[in-house]
Write a structure and sequence with these properties.
The complex is a heterotrimer of chains A (343), B (313) and C (336).
Chain A lengths: L9 E12 L6 E13 L4 E5 L6 H8 L7 E6 L2 E2 L6 H10 L2 E2 L14 H11 L8 H11 L5 H4 L9 H13 L5 E5 L7 H18 L2 E6 L2 H7 L2 E6 L2 E7 H6 L4 H9 L39 H5 L5 E4 L2 E3 L2 H6 L14
Parallel strand pairs in A: 3-8, 3-9, 6-7, 7-8
Antiparallel strand pairs in A: 1-2, 1-4, 4-5, 9-10, 10-12, 11-12
Helix pairs in contact in A: 3-6
Chain B lengths: L22 H11 L1 H18 L36 H37 L1 H16 L2 H11 L5 H27 L3 H9 L3 H9 L4 H24 L10 H10 L8 H29 L17
Helix pairs in contact in B: 2-3, 2-11, 3-4, 3-6, 3-9, 3-11, 4-6, 5-6, 6-9, 7-8, 9-10, 9-11, 10-11
Chain C lengths: L16 E12 L2 E13 L4 E5 L6 H8 L7 E10 L2 E2 L5 H7 L4 E4 L3 H4 L6 H11 L5 H14 L16 H12 L6 E5 L7 H18 L2 E6 L2 H4 L5 E6 L2 E7 H6 L4 H8 L48 E2 L4 E2 L8 H5 L1
Parallel strand pairs in C: 3-8, 3-9, 6-7, 7-8
Antiparallel strand pairs in C: 1-2, 1-4, 4-5, 9-10, 10-12, 11-12
The chains are: A alpha/beta (343), B mainly alpha (313), C alpha/beta (336).
């Protein structure tokens, strides 16, 4: 892994997750995530960008241990997660790697005040704080997140807060554990545009001031550029490109990344409408054949793309892409296909 | 189409509302403003007071004693007249309230507890356990209840209050269990439950402390529905003589009235009075049920425009 | 809004749609809430008007008010909606039915919710056509194939059920349905919000192409300003039930007159150009049960000054019309 300098905080190797679909007779496998490898270091924000069906949410849940991988392994601080047996070990991991959810309203239990989740989190993961002190600690965390009148906000019910406030409570719940890595699954997608920036700035602040790493999962590549240090792009269960965010966005190597960038409406760009040749949508990957999953939509596809699944190859410092054509263009490989002779 | 302008609805960027700071406070205000709730509460409170302190409502101490003249019409001494055995009907009515109410509340409570246990566990444990529990629920659901009740009650000996309660609970829990299982299943993938799992909570904690509190309105509805079922079915059982005919309740009053052909012999009040009370108690549960539906789901509330105010055309 | 600046070339025509003073109220237990307040808009034939605003600003309610699709407890309490000269608000149900779909059609936010899940597309299109008087099956079939071809869907999909189509295809099927009678005006309520970014762009391009080819006008409501930026001729910005800015799209982006518009523009991170820190707009919109009497944005405005306690009119900034006292020619004009 050459993604990070020192030993990574969290490393995924060949992570795979399949789901069974179909009835009892015609059992098929939905390949949500296939052979994905990446690393996340300390004090960095890594964005995981993809459209629906890309597998990004499944990756989040694999890291948060909601599902177990079908194949592959996740290493946290060098130790494999499959080795976590006892409840105590699992709790210790959860305390280091919490998750923030997409829907600010649905992620808080409507029957309780918003302090509930934070206090429970403290009870489970911070035994160093005595019961009597938990409330004060919750207030401290919530104040750090910019919620005014911190003592007051904790006594409200979720329906009394705005979307942005609820999402800050979601982050407060995660911060209560003193985490090392927060997995944020589309934390701003359901918020109004004017509120998003506040939360993105908050995430950057968490990295800078508290040394927390974040895995920021999103479909919005512009927000990924705004807040992340590195970006990874997923398509149909595969990791197609990854690297430092400016490198990937200014010089994308994979045609899908280029497609995403072209599709982003940018009010500051000149107002021109080019022809939209791509009308495709990401496929649902059920029992797929080998080969690049983007080939149907790819303007650069050649024969080898149909037969051999591309692996991520480093094409520039720390910048990897899984594309036969890009690899050939970089002079690192040939577009040879078994049985054909290419010069 | 709902433009979510109203303060407090999810998804709006609104100034946080401070009105109901305590859940209880909000509930009381909601009950007071809802007509159905008020009527239901008043009736229920009235019946509860009568059941608890019957001596406040009548000076007669032993309503079962055959102490008066037989079959008297209503008069100032006997507001509803007397029975064919010489008992004061009004006093019987008052003292009979206790048993009817106790049956309703106890059966409602026990049946609800059983429904919750079976329904919610089936939803959460899933797999083979769910299949087994659901099958059991379905069996109890489709078995024809009244014949079953008659068979059980007759077999267990005409009996005591315990038998009646037992029989009603056994036949009454399955409907609620179905509904609760369905709701629990729909809640299973809600984000806040996933959030609790990711937090590392134990499964038992999640079921009891995270899921159940969000199901309170359905659980309450199950309770009220079971109580209603108990009131009516108990009366029916007692009417055909399967209750304890020597104890005093509205149903047994109906039983004795029927055996003495009260309607034909010019004593309609002996039948009407307990019948009306059964209906009113049942109605109070039903009204409360509707009312709580409206309280918890604002979409069902009737809109009453302030009278006399017409907005500018 | 006859004096609103219009894109060149459209000046000489009669407006297709003229909305004047449209006000929509919701009856709630706590009193009436004005979701839309005195909304004015002119739409010329063939024009693409974008309406942007955040949640709770009233844009969707306004759209449904125009289409006469509001149901209790919402109602139009004031204003008129003149379509080709006739007021839709005062029309009888019968007259409305004649206008619906033939002259004005609607594309909803979520095709999955708007299409009947248990019927094939063909029968849904047939439904629409028969409801508006078309009796011949062959004409219906032919027209259905035509509209699908317009949006780029193969005609074999007439036999498909909605769930068999992908998200983007469903939305395009909805647009095809809206085109069955080639109406003069199509109103769209965030039709792309359920789609991924690539599908979103292709749908927007498709809509623009169709519009240029068939000549219908569009009123397009969205919360995503950048989405309409390349496609709309004019832009309306709404905040807290009121219009705060209106003008040609380019001008709204290049010379925003209202601080809220400026704030919104600043809230979009860019993928080109330098990476700069942004601030967004702090605070929340006001509670519409009891809106402030002055400028509704004042509490969050970085340029607030003492005149802001008076509700502003729409002032001409030279590029757009903005409801902000900063553009009043003089203090006296503001106080009028």
């Amino acid at each position: 892994m050459t993604d990070v300098d020192e030993a990574p905080l969290l490393e995924a190797r060949s992570l795979t997750r399949h789901f069974k679909v179909g009835g009892a007779i015609a059992r098929k496998n939905l390949h949500a995530v296939d052979d994905v490898s990446f690393a996340i270091g300390e004090r960095e924000i890594v964005a995981l960008v993809g459209e629906s069906g890309s597998g990004k949410s499944t990756v989040a849940r694999l890291l948060a241990r909601v599902y177990k991988p079908t194949a592959g392994e996740i290493f946290y601080q060098g130790r494999p997660l499959s080795g976590l047996r006892s409840r105590k070990d699992l709790l210790a991991y959860r305390s280091d790697v919490p998750m923030v959810f997409q829907d600010p309203f649905a992620s808080l239990n409507p029957a309780y005040r918003v302090s509930h989740g934070i206090l429970r989190g403290l009870a489970l993961h911070r035994p160093d704080i005595a019961r009597a002190d938990r409330r004060a600690e919750a207030e401290r965390i919530v104040a750090q997140l910019g919620l005014d009148a911190a003592g007051d906000v904790l006594d409200r019910y979720p329906y009394e807060l705005s979307g942005g406030q609820r999402q800050r409570i979601g982050f407060a719940q995660a911060l209560a554990y003193r985490p090392r890595l927060i997995v944020a699954d589309e934390p701003v997608s359901m918020l109004d545009v004017s509120v998003r920036i506040g939360l993105l700035n908050l995430m950057a602040k968490l990295r800078d001031e508290q040394g927390v790493s974040l895995l920021y999962i999103t479909h919005d590549i512009a927000s990924a550029r705004y807040v992340a240090d590195r970006v990874m792009v997923m398509y149909a269960g595969h990791l197609v490109e990854s690297g430092p965010v400016e490198d990937v966005l200014q010089e994308p190597k994979h045609p899908y990344t280029q497609l995403l960038l072209d599709a982003v409406p940018d009010p500051r760009a000149p107002l021109t409408v080019g022809p939209a040749t791509d009308r495709g949508e990401p496929p649902r990957v059920i029992d797929p054949a080998p080969g690049c999953r983007f080939r149907r939509r790819c303007p650069l596809a050649v024969d080898v793309c149909e037969q051999v699944t591309p692996e991520p190859v480093e094409l520039a410092p720390r910048h990897r892409a899984a594309c036969h054509v890009a690899v050939a263009n970089a002079g690192l490989g040939e577009l040879a296909v078994a049985g054909r002779s290419d010069s | 189409m709902s433009a979510t302008i109203l303060a407090g609805t999810p998804g709006t960027a609104e100034v946080p509302r401070r009105s109901s700071r305590r859940r209880g406070g909000g509930l009381l205000a909601a009950v007071r403003s809802n007509r159905k709730a008020m009527v239901g509460v008043v009736l229920l409170v009235l019946f509860t007071v009568v059941a608890a302190f019957p001596q406040w409502f009548t000076s007669i101490e032993d309503p079962d004693a055959h102490q008066f003249e037989l079959s008297l019409p209503p008069s100032s001494a006997h507001w509803l007249g007397t029975t064919a055995f010489g008992q004061d009907i009004y006093a019987q009515l008052i003292y009979g309230t206790r048993q009817s109410l106790v049956i309703a509340i106890v059966v409602g409570g026990l049946a609800t507890v059983l429904s919750v246990l079976v329904g919610v566990s089936a939803a959460y444990l899933g797999g083979a356990t769910d299949s087994a529990l659901s099958a059991m629920t379905d069996v109890f659901l489709v078995v024809p209840t009244f014949p079953l009740i008659i068979v059980i009650a007759a077999y267990a000996g005409k009996g005591s209050l315990t038998v009646i309660i037992g029989v009603l609970v056994v036949t009454g829990w399955s409907y609620g269990a179905r509904q609760l299982r369905a709701q629990a299943l729909s809640l299973r993938n809600r984000d806040f439950l996933e959030s609790a799992r990711v937090r590392g909570e134990r499964r038992s904690y999640i079921i009891v402390c995270e899921v159940l509190p969000t199901m309170t309105s359905l659980i309450l509805a199950t309770f009220l529905g079971s109580a209603l079922y108990a009131v009516l079915t108990a009366a029916g059982l007692q009417f055909i003589g399967l209750g304890d005919s020597s104890s005093l309740s509205w149903g047994t009053m109906l039983h004795w009235a029927q055996s003495n052909s009260a309607l034909q012999s010019g004593q309609p009040l002996w039948v009407i009075a307990p019948g009306l009370c059964i209906a009113l108690l049942g109605a109070s549960f039903a009204l409360l049920n509707y009312a709580f539906d409206e309280i918890s789901n604002p979409a069902l509330r009737p809109i009453r425009r302030p009278r006399g105010k017409r907005s500018a055309s | 809004m006859a004096s609103a600046p219009l894109p060149d070339g459209l000046l000489s025509q009669e407006p297709l749609l003229q909305v004047r003073g449209l006000t929509v109220e919701y009856d709630t237990a706590a009193g009436p809430v004005r979701a839309v307040e005195s909304f004015d808009l002119d739409v010329l034939p063939g024009e693409f008007v974008g309406v942007v605003g955040e949640s709770g600003c009233g844009k969707s309610t306004m759209l449904f008010g125009i289409a006469q699709l509001l149901s209790p407890p919402a109602r139009i309490s004031a204003g008129s909606v003149l379509f080709k000269g006739s007021d839709l608000v005062t029309m009888t149900a019968r007259e409305l039915n004649a206008t619906r779909w033939r002259d004005v059609s609607v594309v909803m936010q979520s095709a999955m919710n708007a299409l009947n899940p248990v019927r094939q597309l063909a029968s849904q299109y047939e439904d629409v056509m028969r409801a508006h008087g078309e009796k011949s099956s062959s004409v219906i079939r032919q027209r259905s194939e035509e509209v699908l071809a317009l949006v780029g869907i193969d005609k074999t999909h007439l036999k498909s059920y909605p769930h068999q189509l992908s998200g983007g295809m469903r939305q395009r099927a909805m647009i095809a349905m809206a085109l069955l009678f080639t109406p003069d005006l199509i109103i769209m309520d965030e039709p792309t919000s359920a789609l991924d970014v690539v599908a979103q762009r292709s749908l927007m391009v498709q809509i623009k192409e169709l519009q240029q080819r068939l000549g219908f006008a569009v009123v397009f409501v969205t919360h995503d300003m950048s989405l309409v930026s390349h496609f709309s001729d004019r832009l309306v910005v709404m905040y807290a039930a009121k219009t705060v800015e209106i003008g040609p799209t380019r001008d709204v982006f290049a010379h925003p007159g209202h601080p809220y518009t400026q704030g919104l523009l600043d809230a979009f991170p860019s993928i080109r150009g330098p990476r700069v820190p942004l601030t967004g707009i702090p605070g929340s919109p006001p509670n519409l049960l009891n809106p402030p009497t002055g400028c509704r944005f004042a509490a969050r405005c970085p340029h607030r000054f003492e005149l802001c306690d008076i509700a502003p009119d729409m002032y001409d900034t030279g590029h757009t019309l903005a409801a902000c006292h900063l553009h009043a020619a003089s203090r006296e004009e503001a106080l009028r």
